[in-house]
Amino acid sequence: MLRGNTMLSSMLYIAPIIVAAVFLYLAVGCLIVIKKKWWSRIMVWFGCWLLVAMIIFIGDWANLPPTLLAFLFCLWFGCEGSALKRIVIGMMFASTVFAFNGFHDNCFSELLYPHSQNYYGAILRMLFNLLLYLGIRSRRPEPDFELSKPLWKLMLMLNCMPLGVVLSLVLFRNPYFDGGETLLADAVLFLVAVFSFAGLFAALLVLERQQRLERETLLARHNRQYYEAMEAQQFEIRRLKHDLANHLTALLALPEEKRTAYIEEMLDNPAFSKVLKYSGDATVNAVLTAKESQLRQRDIRFYAKVDIPGELPFDKAQICALLSNALDNAAEACEKLPVSQREVEFTAKTGKGMLAVSVKNPCGGVQAPKEGSKKAGSTLPATTKADTKHHGFGLKSVREAVKKYGGNLEIEQSEGKFSLFCWLPLASDPDEGKTLGKSAR
Q1: Domains defined for the chain, CATH in brackets
Q2: pTM of the prediction?
């Protein structure tokens, strides 16, 4: 009978701790991308379980330092993102959970149930991590967000304060000192460290939103310049065609030996190239005509299958940026291959209330994922150009255009093939598009 009671008590303690670790795992996943490999997920969950279950007593060096290092180790190898991001996110959660555990184990339990079973503490740990997860989930950014290095360093400095409070309370106190006199002060300091997570999280959201707005402004300027350059080219084509009569008059006045050179110069002018009618949308036709000519000059075969009967209800600069950057990205990958392997397949069609665009090209090891694995999703491959500050906007422009209208972007690399697929709901404005996009998911 005694053994049965012991087993029941153990189960009552272990079950809430396991659930608490699941909630902490989900909370971590709201702020940083956990790798999809099974061992990475198990590693991160184990780190969360270790963090939640660890007993934190004042003056005890045996628990807190190893647990902190183990948790950061699990996030380092189990999550994606920059080194600073993994450290900052790890420190945010570690300081908060350590502070709550320290408050409970040294202050709360001593006052309310000093001689009771420890499963009360396990239930409180579960509830705390549930609230932590729900609070983050309600206002979370995209898990794959990134800040600049100076901003991550700022967040690292801010994280040092609550973690330093917890480390000072736990590690730099005499374990044999009677803490009854400082119980209230200890409780207040632990709670300050706990609630500092709200300030750190708010600061992270503000910095992420500010950097996202700056990036969107830069991409919008880049897209507008791209569209204006294409519009200027089209205007020059219309102007030269309008002056065709003047050119014919000039030809009549030229001597025979100069007439042939003048005609050849005119034929080389883009104004006299045919604008191909791929679809019922003028912007799509202009982009594909220009890109078809550029791809042919690079010895890249271009296969286009377009089924767009009418005008698209999108901003012309956005649709120009989406199509142009997708095709430019394919062309850059093809240029690194032998001429015999260079080809781009483009498909676009409207139907069932949405526009679907697909671009496929061989990559031949360019930007190939490690271990030959299949890489799919909206995560963008890094630019291969050395100047990352002024390059790498192509696929970002595509993603921003897709997100603006509530669509979805999928990128896949496998077996030497690169595939980009996106769809956008055919809404009349971006806000409506986002609404339709969410309902479609």
Answers
A1: 2-217 (no CATH), 274-440 (3.30.565.10)
A2: 0.63
